[in-house]
Amino acid sequence: GAVVSQHPSRVICKSGTSVKIECRSLDFQATTMFWYRQFPKQSLMLMATSNEGSKATYEQGVEKDKFLINHASLTLSTLTVTSAHPEDSSFYICSARKGPGNTIYFGEGSWLTVV
Amino acid sequence: AQKVTQAQTEISVVEKEDVTLDCVYETRDTTYYLFWYKQPPSGELVFLIRRNSFDEQNEISGRYSWNFQKSTSSFNFTITASQVVDSAVYFCALSEGKEYGGATNKLIFGTGTLLAVQP
Fold this sequence. Notes:
The complex is a heterodimer. Chain A is mostly beta strands.
């Protein structure tokens, strides 16, 4: 069964609005989660590392004020795309490490379409 | 610098053929982890295998097998007797760090190989 769960799986929002995507670790605690972005037919690019109880660490070129990450509990991280624009339309996917085997599991992903 | 190269962009085979997906990596770390994931059209990433840098044993799991060779920095994936359900994009990924704690666990992905298995 699923180890990491994301919600919603698909969302359509109007340009200028904000949308929140949730990532939950199921049956385990994840002090660190990761958010990736994937454009059609391209690879996954790490956006940020979500740290429970502290600020997220963003990769170079990712706007922290646009992609707000909150890791409020050991099982939940959220990504909020603020003031979304059509170019933010993409597939967003989170991951978490389920230790101690260092295997990294991914959520089902969230398709965001900004119209 | 860390890098993962999957030179094969697309591969098309006929059902029951064997197919090998290539993966070459670059890293300066002595401790690292290699992964293969399958991404079907629905989008989710399905974990297939994890291998650490100290374990060069090849692995076989059903129709899947992996050949890890540190000498050539390669971690190739072979599907034997391919099936239509194997059609997907396959990603090879690299993670650096220690086994317990202190690891960034950030994955560096290759560009993926689209495998199309024709009936």
